[in-house]
Amino acid sequence: MNTINDSSSPMEVLKSGKSGEQRLRLHYLDGLRGLASLYVVMYHLSGYMGQVPIFLQLIGKTVNYGTFAVVIFIVLSGYVLMLPVTRSQSVYLSGGLWNYIQRRVRRILPPYYAALVFSLIVAVIILGLIKFFNFQWHQLPEIEDGFNPFFSPIDVITHLLLVHDFTSDTLESIDAPMWSVAVEWQIYFIFPLFLLPIWRRFGLFYTVINTFLISLLPFYLWNKLMEPVHPWFLGLFALGMAAADIGFSQKPKLVAMRESLPWSVFVIIFFLIGLIINQEIEEWIYDYICGLAAACLLIYCTKLVVEGKKSLILRLFETRWAIALGTFSYSLYLTHAVIITVVEHLLSNLQMSPVKFILVLYVVALPLSLIIAYLFYLIFERPFMSDFLKKRKVKDAVN
């Protein structure tokens, strides 16, 4: 999410040196985003494995941590947006607040609204099939569909205003993954108006700690009334900011932290804790544990890139196919739930065994989601990108 939808250039960051300014290429950020988006697709596909043999269910459990991917998107968003600030001499947004807002609008809204229209068109088609052709829309009781063609005008209005995350009734209506886009859109305004001023005045650690506390106040003061908004995601965003500051700051304390702490060990520890508890505790605690793993991963990978070193995980993120996925990951995130749900309901009208059903679902829905997402990217996402981002073509990544 972006996390999944960032316009700042994650692949290139200015690196100052005695010989002048050089380009430090952070290709792994695109690869991480691409793999995370693919994992979300696999996560939604795994929801249909309930009636298959146990060995297939075990395979499905490996992609049963979709929340972790969303957390990565939020942390990554804070990291990428903070990079130009922490690298600049003025520690202010490049081009000012208005320029920042314009970039956010151009990057986020056109694909989002196009995906919303796409969802509404598919919904009209489905309703027409149900009414005129007796098409059966089988809702499995144990599965929550990522796309719902039965929605109200309130659902549409709240989605248009990007406030559908304010209530549980509209949170996952129409196209369920869009809820995190609304949350992130709101954070984009809090970042320059609240987080950056505190960071400039009081420093990194004060910003992170106070953001954690403040983001949890609505959750507890109103007896979880604000839970659909996921206010604690602001703390995850602050973790991404912290990872960028630690990764590139020249302040002695942060340099000492960057050089001395075992970031790879922290990644493993927090990741394993997240796997073990798997949302068995309060959601915000689980998300923060996953967020700490993501932030440490970003610091670790960036440190490797700066030092010219490699590791297995960094090589994975820098593979051409992962980077290619990252190129159109926002479009994939926005459209995949519609494709998967429609294919699932079409297949449910056929007489298939559970094993055949899940195999056909994967064979059809996964590649179809990727193809439609890429076409969607070409039509509705790429034309609104900056000149630099337009040069990041999928074919360039895989050739």
Strand content: under 5%
Care to count the β-strands? 2
Number of helices: 18
Distance between the termini: 26 Å
Q: How are the SSEs placed, and which strands pair?
A:
Elements: E1 12-15, E2 22-25, H1 27-46, H2 54-61, H3 66-87, H4 96-133, H5 153-160, H6 168-171, H7 178-202, H8 204-221, H9 233-248, H10 252-260, H11 263-277, H12 283-307, H13 312-317, H14 320-327, H15 329-348, H16 354-381, H17 387-390, H18 394-398
Helix pairs in contact: 1-3, 1-14, 1-15, 3-9, 3-12, 4-7, 4-15, 4-16, 7-8, 7-9, 8-9, 9-10, 9-12, 11-12, 15-16
What does this 3D model show about the protein?
The longest helix is centred in the N-terminal third of the chain and has 38 residues. The chain is mainly α and 399 residues long. The protein has a two-stranded antiparallel sheet. It is globular and about 70 Å long. A hairpin with a 6-residue loop joins β1 and β2. α1 crosses α14. It is 70% helix and 2% strand. The chain has one domain. The chain starts with 11 loop residues before the first strand and ends with a helix.
